[in-house]
């Protein structure tokens, strides 16, 4: 119990530091970053994983802070770590290895020691931290505010769904037999790809909490990005090919793309990419793969231009909430042209010409939160992998032909997915729209329009800074939402809050 209390105190302190950064609406100072990084290193687990995601934003930085989290000092001293290896193997480690390097490398859930088998092969021995599984539930409860620095899952998301999705993946990451199976699948898949290297599982020396695999040699990304343009171009092509082929040929995606999970090698023919750590491999399923295929094909062939309804249908087939897509469907065709710009050009694409984030935000305008709220938890790992690919190619500053890689991997179009209609659309026929308006000193700061049935998710639409004021006035937003569902969403004012210069009003019309 004291250990859990101590962790809870650390999580609360971390949450306050992240919240302070958000309130200032700017990047943390170097000192602030270092405080957060040191706390993340101490915590390991999910908090360190959040920091590893943040490290993707530093791929082009000469003074990275969060990149320290991809490989940290070992949590366990060598004697303790070797004892854990003995316990996981069920025998002394000397029976399996000629030698083990006592200088381990720490990660979020485990630490890794370099070793040599008795037959002379070099291996990586990954041993799980004792007790790390016990921290999982506590970390997941903190998921909402732990994700504040990467976009904030606290507001505008199906937080329960995201917690389930992240929780299931973390539990799989703690099962090294499952990781070994994912590694085997990836190794079989990349056998036909040039210049992609994946380690081999050493079955006899692996188990629930230990995974032994062949050693992958190479340098970190920070060094590879300094290579010649020709070498970087080969690396960019390999990363794009790996991304599309794993999705459309194997139905899976490596969804932990932080720089600690890659190695780069100047192979004799072309530079090679080594891929490490297969705990976070997401099996996408045939429905999502088919829906992605159809959406990308429509974007490439121009079938989405001027067809907002077709674009919305494609997003719905991926699991996006139709109630939240409907008010912004007219923005979706242009958004798709922005999101898939590298695929629309049948030539090597210049990443500097993309400006993905700025153009997407400009295109969506006030509806950018609609899109975030509508997104399904099942796509979180695909999106992480896609964003990772974008970050690596941008940092490499080398062109790659996305279209060619996609067409080689995807093949012929799949059958048309058929999205199911939401029963709440018919239920909400009494009202047309849910309206939210925020004004200050009589001037409108924000005005959002949603389908009426979006009031089912009304608690998720309320800005966090307004919640305490509503509670002080005894305004039960969740209760209002339940009542609206029972009464079929009748028109009228739901509640209003006036404080000084600020006015917050919500109604159905």
Q: What do these coordinates show?
A:
- The chain is built from 23 helices and 14 strands.
- With 509 residues, it is of the alpha+beta class.
- Among the domains are: 95 residues, no CATH class; 128 residues, no CATH class; 85 residues, no CATH class.
Please give the largest β-sheet.
Answer: 5 strands, antiparallel
Name the helicity range. 40-55%
Computed structural class? alpha+beta
The overall pLDDT, averaged over residues, is: 84
Given the C-alpha coordinates, what overall shape results? globular
How many beta-strand runs? 14
- Total helices: the number is 23
Provide the descriptors you would attach to this structure in a database record.
single chain; 509 residues; 23 helices; five-stranded antiparallel beta sheet; four-stranded antiparallel beta sheet; alpha+beta
List the helices and strands and how they pair.
Layout: H1 2-24, H2 30-43, H3 45-54, H4 78-89, E1 97-100, E2 105-106, E3 110-117, E4 122-128, H5 136-141, H6 143-146, H7 159-173, H8 176-190, E5 196-197, E6 210-214, H9 221-224, H10 229-248, E7 252-254, E8 262-265, E9 272-275, E10 281-283, H11 286-301, H12 308-317, H13 322-325, H14 332-339, H15 341-344, H16 356-364, H17 368-374, H18 380-396, H19 402-410, H20 423-427, E11 433-440, E12 443-451, H21 458-461, H22 467-472, H23 477-487, E13 492-499, E14 502-508
Parallel strand pairs: 5-9
Antiparallel strand pairs: 1-3, 2-3, 3-4, 4-6, 7-10, 8-9, 11-12, 11-14, 13-14
Structure at a glance:
The chain contains 23 helices and 14 strands.
């Amino acid at each position: 119990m004291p250990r859990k209390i101590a962790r809870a105190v650390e999580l609360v302190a971390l949450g306050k530091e992240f919240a302070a950064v958000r309130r200032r609406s700017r990047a943390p100072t170097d000192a602030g970053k270092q405080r957060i990084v040191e706390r993340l290193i101490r915590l390991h687990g999910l908090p360190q994983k959040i920091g590893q995601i943040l490290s993707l934003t530093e791929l082009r930085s000469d003074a990275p802070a969060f990149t320290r989290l991809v490989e940290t000092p070992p949590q366990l001293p060598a004697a303790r770590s070797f004892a854990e290896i003995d316990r996981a193997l069920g025998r002394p480690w000397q029976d399996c290895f000629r030698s083990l390097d006592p200088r381990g490398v720490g990660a979020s859930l485990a630490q890794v020691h370099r070793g040599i088998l008795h037959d002379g092969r070099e291996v990586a021995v990954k041993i799980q931290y004792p007790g790390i599984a016990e921290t999982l539930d506590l970390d997941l409860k903190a998921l909402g505010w732990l994700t504040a620095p990467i976009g904030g899952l606290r507001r505008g998301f199906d937080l329960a769904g995201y917690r389930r999705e992240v929780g299931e993946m973390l539990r799989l990451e703690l099962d090294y037999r499952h990781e070994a199976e994912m590694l085997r699948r990836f190794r079989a898949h990349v056998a036909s790809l040039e210049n992609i290297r994946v380690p081999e599982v050493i079955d006899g020396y692996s188990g629930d909490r230990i995974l032994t695999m062949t050693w992958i040699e190479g340098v970190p990304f920070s060094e590879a990005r300094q290579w010649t343009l020709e070498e970087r171009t080969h690396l960019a092509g390999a990363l794009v090919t790996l991304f599309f082929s794993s999705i459309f040929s194997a139905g899976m995606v490596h969804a932990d793309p932080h720089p600690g999970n890659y190695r780069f090698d100047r192979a004799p023919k072309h530079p090679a990419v080594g891929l490490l750590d297969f705990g976070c491999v997401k099996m996408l399923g045939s429905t999502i793969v088919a829906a992605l295929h159809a959406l990308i094909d429509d974007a490439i062939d121009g079938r989405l231009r001027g067809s907002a309804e077709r674009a919305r249908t494609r997003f719905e087939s991926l699991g996006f909430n139709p109630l939240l897509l409907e008010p912004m469907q007219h923005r979706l065709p242009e958004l798709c042209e922005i999101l898939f710009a590298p695929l629309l050009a049948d030539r090597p694409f210049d990443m500097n010409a993309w400006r993905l984030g700025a153009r997407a935000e400009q295109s969506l305008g006030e509806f950018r939160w609609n899109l975030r709220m509508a997104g399904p938890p099942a796509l979180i790992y695909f999106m992480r992998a896609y964003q990772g690919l974008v970050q690596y190619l941008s940092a490499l500053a080398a062109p790659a032909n996305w279209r060619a890689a996609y067409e080689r991997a995807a093949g012929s179009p799949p059958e048309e997915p058929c999205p199911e209609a939401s029963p709440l659309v018919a239920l909400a026929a009494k009202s047309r729209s849910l309206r939210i308006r925020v004004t200050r000193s009589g001037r409108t700061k924000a005005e959002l329009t949603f389908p009426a049935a979006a009031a089912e998710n009304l608690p998720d639409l309320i800005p966090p800074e307004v919640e305490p004021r509503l509670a002080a006035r005894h305004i039960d937003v969740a209760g209002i939402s339940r009542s609206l569902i029972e009464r079929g969403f009748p028109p009228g004012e739901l509640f209003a809050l006036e404080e000084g210069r600020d006015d917050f009003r919500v109604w159905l019309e």
